Amino acid sequence: MKFNLFLPCRSGSQRIKNKNTRVFGHYSFGLLEHKLLQFSKMECVDSLTVDTDDELIIDFLSEFKSNFKYPVHVCRRPSALAKADSLDNYLQYIPTIMPEGIIFWTHVTSPFFNEFEMETVINLFKEKCINAEYDSLMSVNKIQTFLWNNTGCISHDRDFIKWPQTQDLQAIYEVNSAAFLIDKNKMMEIKDRIGDNPYLYVSSKLGAIDVDWPEDFVFAEKLLRTNF
Known about the structure:
Layout: E1 3-9, H1 30-40, E2 47-52, H2 55-64, E3 72-76, H3 87-97, E4 102-105, H4 115-128, E5 136-143, E6 148-149, E7 152-153, E8 172-183, H5 184-190, E9 198-202, H6 214-225
Parallel strand pairs: 1-2, 1-4, 2-3, 5-9
Antiparallel strand pairs: 4-8, 5-8, 6-7
Helix pairs in contact: 3-5
């Protein structure tokens, strides 16, 4: 079974200007360079596909891909699929550019979801999802705390007990987008990056960090400088 990394890098981030490529710590080509270096250390993947509409990224990869021991494919994303609201159509497009095997979809915005954790996820997929109980895998954050919405408490029944121990609460899981793994043919069939029964991989605290807002970028950069 082949495992093929997939990395989307759309230009024009709405919240952080040049998010993928702006200087990040000592990485002059930013989060992208950092993630590519992690990829280049992985021994258990068969290829990497980077899909982008950013000419700077295409130029950078033309030279940087020499650091890899496995094939690196650069696809130029169609302009119609480079919009923030085009994810459903994008899900149908991805299998058409990917090799046969398992698609491992991740993002540069998970800078501390490193090569070791990615390899852990691959091994878990082999155990849990190949001829087994689950049909896909995604990374999540486990939330087990007191939760409210605008109608009141949703984490527990306060008529029964007002402040239970948090470890006794029913856990819920937040998708953190560090990893989605699914067979290419399954993805093509259902037009989604997870199946009906995904295995929920609870990321490490560091691996769960998602750079989505300017303050996330600042925090992640400071964390990087502490040699995590």
